[in-house]
Each structure stands twice: as structure tokens, then as C-alpha cells.
Amino acid sequence: MGMENSEFLVMRGISKNFDGTQALRNVDFSAASGEVHAISGENGAGKSTLVKILSGALTSNTGEIFLDGKLVELGTPLRARRLGIYAVYQEFSLISHLTTAENILLGQMPSTRVKGVVDWNKAFRQADDILSSIGFVGIDVHKTVRQLSVSHQQMVEIAKAVANRRRILILDEPSAVLSQEELRRLFNLMRKLKEEGTLILYISHRLDEVFDIADRITVLKDGQLVGTVKPQECDQNQLIKMMVGRSLGEIFPVRHPVGNETALEVRNLFHEGEFSDISFSIRRGEILGMFGLVGSGRTQVARCIFGADPFTHGEILLKGKPTHPRSPRAAVKEGIALLTEDRKRDGLVMICTIRDNASLASYHELSRWGVINRRRQEIRVKQKVQELDVRPPLLDRLASHLSGGNQQKLVLAKWLLTRAGVLILDEPTRGVDVATKVEIYKIINDLARDGMGILLISSELPEILGICDRALVMRYGRLVGEFSRAQANEEKLLASAAGVSQ
Amino acid sequence: MTNNAEPQPKNPNKALAGLRKTLLGDGGNRRTRHWVDYAFIIGFVILIVITASMSDVFFTQRNLSNLLRQTVTNGVLSLGMLVVILTGGIDLSVGSVVALAGIMVAGLVKLGMPLFPAILICLVVGAAVGAVNGFFIARFKLQPFIVTLATLGAIRGLVYVYSDIPITPTDPAYRAVLGAGFIGPFPISALIMLACYPIVWFFLNRTSSGRAIVGIGGNEEAVRLAGINVTWNIFLAYMISGFFSALAGVILASRLGISQPSVGAGFELDAIAACVIGGAILGGGGGSTFGTLAGVISLGIIDNLLNLFNVQSYYQQILKGLIILVAVLARRKQR
Asked: In whole angstroms, how far apart are CA A147 and each of A98, A102, A141, A298, A476?
């Protein structure tokens, strides 16, 4: 028996096979109670699979799990919960038309003296207490979950898990939808839970967060354990090298000079309750960054330019000519493309093939009298899929069978087949592993070199600083700052986005 | 046309995969569908074997051609239903449109209108009813279930307003061609139905509207944001359903030789059953033309078999209800 075996949680020899692909290969993992243990790795490295085995959502093919030195059988989420293991996944499991209070207290609603009749006052009070006890204030428990913002939904999801007696809490990418301030509150909560002896397993793509909160970091690569490190003994570059075998300096491509022609100009765009006074222009070959906290209105501006949502007034000029796309169809015809922030929700048709998804926005070019020219479709899609290195390059493969990074490349392929002149990218690297990020940055860079005007909306500062020629900052529906590549740095952009004057 | 000049399959494996795709469609999660598909194919074969061994009448030409003619109505209806189901919708009004088209064609012919213009008018009227469904569903984003339930009632009422007594068409050509006509050993009506299947297959797999319709059932918002006119394509799907309902109505009236205002009640059940047995997923996200044809024929064989053994039609209803349940159960999403 080695040192590790005395730890609170020990997973030994865990393997998991999905229809022939080995998601986990003989992984040994252990963690102590009262620590925040981060699990890092590229997409498809096996992080989610590992924690899902621990939470009972999946069963492993081989391996044993020990809690407090005792061998446990998990198998179902219910059994895992009885042992005090709770998980918050990327996909929410909230019931959207019930109130927040009901969601938090699901299965344990308080009743009045007459059994079975819900005591609503008590329920709202209890739910409110739970939320405030963990520092999540400002969420109205009377509202239905549907009425809450995505970040508040995420916090309710976490509250639901924390409301129970738990020994292990699994957080899978909780920060993706949280603002800076909300993230701070989550970290406070995590520190408190840690003191109470809870083991927290934390998965995040954002390395700065991991370094901020984790006591130890375990790195997985291709379903195998690479190693466990302490953040004090390692820096981000070393960690990335463990994850992908590549260092940070090689991530962003070298930018090319920008042309003089204007690709897109927006003047005084205004929409009641969403944003106002939005004016900016993008030149051909330019990558314009748009930074801001979640809910600052960046996505709404993008959707209006693309015709997906209406705006009250304002002007949009394409190559100097005024235009007003009233539908995505009109925008696509005008040569505007929008890669949305959530590819699962509105980017891809998961039940359709690569071929279908890639040609979805260019059928008017691929067909005559409504009949698709299969040969032309085949040639164009195949070429684009190879160009972007979508793996596997099989046109009949369903989109749902691709990894996150390849799905994102497929969405890109769809838009590049339209030969748009203006490309709006809303969080193009969300939920994408580092290796694919590098490829996507290179693609974006190449597109700009070929004369496309690109608006890059991102919440990741390194991304904005690494690839954009200029950066705009949005806050509460207004543009509050503009920085050239030379001026921009993390502090300035963050201060501007958060409304702190320097 | 260069469209059909697809590269030839290079090895038998690929050809087999191509055949599978042609028969079972592109949509759906193939990996989890495997056993379900095979189970249905095996069940289908067993059904035929049982039927043939239990009744020596089954494999007579007369019975087979009867069987074919009886499946025509449902076969045509199910095609329209499939297109609508692929968009994630449902069309409950098909039975009423069958009655409307049937009574109108008989009425018009009785008034002295030549047969083919009368048929054409009925088909247009059927498509128009579908257009009304499609307009409310696509334009105002109303629930297909409710909208088509409303038209189901309204059109049935309209049929009785037009004529509350059965009409017998006077033109003898009417019965002779569509209802009782044969080309060789094949009933004309069955040939029309069988011809419709490759046409709809081509529409769904080789036209931009067809691919859009399949995509809408999978993720409507993604299709909209790709710059496709979703409203138009949903509208089109219901129009197609209305058209095929009217075609089924005209053929049925011709076969029966009399147009009853009460005909067609409950036909939507058969059509939905055929689609679901053939692999369609209610709510969108899968389904194929040839799967649907297999569903139509299996339902037809079951009916035929029960008729041969003189089982009351009430039991047939019960059995059909159970078949739908089992089919949906077998195809529910697996984790």
C-alpha cells in the first residue's frame, strides 16, 4: 500500500470503452477530502468521462473505486448520491417551468400540517436561505428557472448540489457562463466547502482559474493519466505542455497588416432594452475583438447585424453601402456570416451528417431549381472539410458523433462555404481543446489575410490580446472602450469591462 | 442531368452501406438504431411467413392485388405525414381531407365536369387545406397538434355542409381507371402510390427544401440561422401533406365507387403508425421514405391477415394502437 491509498478518494485502474474508442485507459486517480482538485486536459482527454464514472452517470469497464478506504459500487447516480457524491454538469438538469425554489428543494418540499400540501412560504424561505448561506444573492426564488439568466441558472444548479449533505462535489466547467463577479462568489463558496471537508473536483478550460483555486491539478491526455502537479510548483506553460505537448508562445499566429477598405460599418445601432449607441467599423483583413462580461450585450449586437433579431434604429453599411438585413437569409445573401456561441443549441443539426451541415448555408449556390448538384456539393464540402482538417473527414458521419473541436470546425466550414465577406465569431473557441484552438486561430488569421473582415466576440482575454488588431469593450449595452493592439493589455480591458476607472 | 452521375460504389461494403442508407435514410442515430431496424425487418419476414403458412388464400393473385389496393390510401397518406413528421410536426387533419377530396370529386363529376379537371381541382383544394395548416403553424408558431386538430373538425364539418348524403359519381371511367384499373397484374392505384415514393425520396434527399425540412426537425434555430427560409419550408411540408391526403381521398372514392362524407375518420392513426414503424421519430429527427413504405405494407398485411381470419375491425384498431406503442417504445432514445 502506497501513500496515495490512504487518501479519501481512490480510483484505481479505471478504463472506459465507448463503441470501440478507448475514452479512459487504466487511470489511477486519488484525491483528499478538503481539497480542490482540478482535472485538466484537452477536449476528449477523458475528464468528463472520469467524473461521470465517479458520479454514477457512467459505469467503467474495469477499475475499482474506494471511498475512505472502502470499496464502493457506484453504477447509478442515485447510489452515488447516497454516498454523498454530487455533480454539476455542463448540461443543466433544471426544470425550466418550475420556480427556482422548487428546483432547489426538489423532492424535499416542506408541507403544511396537512401532509402533501406544499407550504409555499416556507419553501421560498428555505430556498432563499440556502442561496444566501452560500453567498449567491440576488436570485429571486419565486421566478421560474426559465426567467433566470444563464449564469443564475448555473448558480441554482450549484446550489441544488450544495443543499445536500455531500462529501464530493463535482463541477464540470461551471465558469463558462459566469461573470467575473459571480465566479468570485463561486470561489468563495468553494473555499468554504473545502474547510467543511468537502472534496471538490473542478474541471475548467480556463487555466488561470485552475491556478487560482486548485490545490492540486491532475492532467489527462488521450484517456491516460499524465501526472498530478501542485500549482505552486508549475506554471501555465508547463501545464499546457503536459496537456498538449506545445507551449503558450506557439498558440497565436503572426498577424498580417490590415487593408484600407471598410468591410462593415455600424452607426448608432440601438435596440430598446438591449444596447445603444453602437458604432464601429471593420476593415477588410482586420480582426476586431469585442470583449465584455456575460450579459453586456455583445451577442445581441451580433444577432442584430446578422438579421436574427430586429433593432430599433441605426445603420449598417456593407462595403460602404447601406443595408438592413431583416432575416438571417437576407444577411447570408449580403455576405455576412455568424458563428453562434452555442453550437449545440443553434449551430449544428446534430442528427444530420457532415455533408448536410456543411452545405446548410450554401444550398442556393449548390442547387439549381431547388435540386442539389450532388457532385458540386461533394467536391466543395470535401475540400473545405480537408482544408479545416475536420476529423474524421467522412461526409456521412453524423455531427453528433464528432468531438467538440471538430464540431466547431464543421460550423466554420458551413460559413466558409458561403464565401462571406464579413464573419462574426461569437466565442469560437468555447469548449474547445487547446490543440483545436490553435488550429482555429490559424484559420481565422488566414481568413483575414484573404481579405475577410472579422468580428471576434470573446470572453477570453488571451484570445482578444493574442489575435485581434483592435479591441472594443462593451458594458451594459454600450461600447465603453477601444484599444489598439499596442495599447491593449489584460488590466485595461478588464477594468473597462467592469467599469473600474484606472 | 449531371446530378445523377454519382461515383459508383467501389467495393461491396460501401455498396451495402449505400443500400442501407437508401432504405433507412440519412437521419437518426444509426448506431443505436441497428437492432431496432433488424428487429423490424425480421418481424416483417416472420409476419409474411406466418400469413402464408396459415392461409392458402394469401398468396393468390387476387388477394395480393386486393392487399395492394387496400394499402394505397394509407401509403399515399403516410408520405405526406412523413414529410410533416420530419419537420417535427404532425398532421391530424388528413382523414378529413380524404373525405373532402372524395366528396368533391364525386360532386364535381356529377355536375358534369370532366374527370381529370375535377381531380386536379380536388388536389389543389387538398394542398390549400395544407397551406392553411402550414400558414398558422409556420407563420404564428402555433402547435401543429392543435392547428391540425382544428382543421380536422372544421373540414369534416365542411364535408357535411357540401353533402350529408353519399354521392355516387356517374362517370364510369372514374371507377374503371383509378379504382379498378389494372396494368398487367398491377392495380393502377398501387402503381401511382409506388411512383410517389421515389419522388418523395428524391425531394427529401436531393433538393435543398428537402434537406432543410430534415434539418428543421433536428434543429430549427440552426437552420434558420444558416439563412434558410424556415417558415416557407414548414408551410411547404403541410401543403405536401394536404396534397397527398387529397390524392388518397380521390383514389379511395374511386375504389369504393361511392363518396361517403364520413369516410377517413381515424386515418391519421394509420399514417402515423406507418411512419413510426418505418423509423420516423415524432418530434423530428429521423425517418425515411422506404422505411415508411415498409411500415405501410406491414400494416396492410396485418389488416389483410385479420380480414382473412374474419377478425372484427375493432380488434384491428386495438392491435394498431399497440403496434404504435411498441414501435415508439423500441425507438425511444437510449442512454
From this structure: 10, 14, 11, 20, 19
